[in-house]
Amino acid sequence: MADAGTDDDELIKIVSEAGHLFGPEILAESKRAGLPFALALALVDQESTFQNIFGCDLGSRDTAPWCHQPVTRDRVQALIAHVEGGGTSNGVGLTQLTSIDLIQQAEAEGGAHNVVPQCRVGFGHLHDLIERHGEQVGIGAYNGGEGNPQPDYATSVLGLRDKWQALINRTLLAEQIPAQLPVEPGGKFDAAVEAHLLHIWHEVHINPEISQAVKDEVAAWKSYFRQLKLWSSKHAIDAHHQDELTFGHSRLHVI
Asked: pTM of whole model > 0.85?
């Protein structure tokens, strides 16, 4: 099986061969947020087609809130001043951050004109929405807000997610399908294990002082879920293992 570094190189290559920039940044920030890489790519594809530009919800204009101009530090500052003066906001960058709170978060993370803070805030926000509302409604809320989730938007993003996942699968899966059904690293999967995994997944993402033993346990389960997903692409699995795949996908967002 290829190591993680090799896989990362292949994933970044998928993005570049599709004609897009920012693969390394999107991959790193999707991991940081706990968002599947294919979903992160789908969000960027939907929102900006991988361009660091402003949105154009209010029509063509050469001043704040802008319309499809490249995002720069000065233009972000002008947009913030425009909103604080009572004007309407506009989407910023790869993830089209539009709420002034999200734009300010990106400013605090290194500047809303930079793609890494754009992805960090956007991916983290989407992850949190999915955690609160489930996949379909959470994705719809990224576009319309939690009080007005947009189902058509969610359907479009999920379609793009499937497109990117198919590319990823074709690149990574063929030579990595395990020879045998993988075995759970922590004993039989049950409700207690589910609760434990949810806890340590959360801790790994928020606690920089977490022990190496916990990090290793998370890594072992990530590997297991991925290997099970690979196995299921070529073999029938029983209801127990299907429940594991559903949990790994919908609750842990690792596959």
From this structure: no
